[in-house]
Amino acid sequence: MSGRSRSSRCTSTRSTNRQIVPLSRITAMTASTEVTFRPRLSWATLFDRDGNCTAGTSVCWLCPPADSRRYDRLMRPSPSRFLVAVACTFFFTARLLASGNMPINVILDRGSFYPETYSLFQAIANQVVAQVNLLIPGTPPDVSEDDIVCFETNPTFEASSGHSGPIVLIGPKLAGEPAATSAGTIRIAVNAVQPGFLQRFAFQLSHELAHVKMGPQIDNALIETFATATSYEVMRRLGYNDYVKLAISADLELLPPEIQVQLSSGETEPLRKYWQSQIVIEWNRMDDRPMQTLGALLLKMGDEPRWELLLGISAFSHCADSPSRWPVKLCPPDVKKIAQVGLSLKSLGY
Ligand SMILES: [Zn+2]
After folding, report:
1. Which entry of 6, 72, 104, 249 is 20 to 30 Å from 340 by CA?
2. Residue 33 Cα, ligand 1 centroid: separation in angstroms?
3. Which of the listed residues 184, 214, 244 is the one where a domain comes to its end?
4. Ligand 1: distance of its center to the CA of 165 in Å?
5. What is the pTM of this model?
6. Are 258 and 145 members of one domain?
7. Integer-rounded Cα radius of gyration of the chain
8. Which whole-number Å values give the CA distances from 144 to 1, 86, 100, 334, in the listed order?
């Protein structure tokens, strides 16, 4: 199915009564209330702040582990480097096409985003999408390759869905969704990211795209932990390390005092035991962010997961074939089957 057929419809709506926000105010807000945003639409896109490759060393020879001098040389633009970048992009795209899987794509709904910052948010979305496609290449079974429409929630949507977002939608169209969305397609609703919370937007979008990659039809606490781990990883690769530190600290502070002590001591075994004891009780809880963040931290410390194995992983659950009146089913994970595909979860105590 063509991924381009929907994009014209996605750009057809435009709000006429939206408040105009001066760009200077947005810039000031971005700099003061969030972590500073620096456009990364250049060579720096390939590297994080420490000069480490963010595109994967196997993808392109342009992006080896860089020492500082090499990093400095690469940062200097030149026509030849531009040509190499084009060739590299072509090579990577060809690799994806050859694998039989198109990367997913996201189009922001014009009616939901302020006209002054639409391009900025779309540029961030493109960077997030590129990183998620690098981490988890391909499209899972039962997921269309059509463009995904992304919009910001509003009171009508929140009343009709009972959810303030962020969320992936796959079922019937709900009241408050923009004209550009259609029932039965994948849509992503983000929450409170305007006028200028670009990093919050990147964090939410990467989490929801991880759900799309893992299979948005099934959810559980393990899937939520993977989605949270993916969003932190994408943020790191985009260079938003300060945001990651703040978000992780804020979540971990909400864990019980005894876990705070274990976190300070750096002992992982008690943390694993705690995570395991909780997930048995909370396998169907989607909103326990501190638990998800603790799981993401444990995964990171164990150099897990192998990101590419997350594709379609939600299908390994104990209710994959059972009927449900809801578009998204909550089912306990089938950890045995997950292990069979090679996804190690030792860090989480399995
Ligand atoms: Zn989630």
Report:
1. 104
2. 25
3. 214
4. 10
5. 0.72
6. no
7. 20
8. 7, 28, 13, 25
Q: Which domain holds residue 253?
A: 236-348
In the block, tokens 């929907």 appear at 6
Say how many Å lie between the CA of residue 49 and the centre of ligand 1.
27
Q: How far apart are CA 172 and CA 169, in angstroms?
A: 8
Same domain, 37 and 145: yes
pLDDT, position 165: 83
Residue 173 domain flag: yes
206 CA to centre of ligand 1 in angstroms: 10
331 Cα to the center of ligand 1, angstroms: 14
Contact 319, 304 (CB under 8 A): no
Mean pLDDT by 10 residues, the chain (350 residues): 34 36 42 34 36 35 35 50 59 51 87 95 97 94 87 94 90 94 94 94 97 94 96 96 93 89 85 91 85 94 94 87 71 90 89
The CA 130 to ligand 1 mean position distance, Å, reads 19
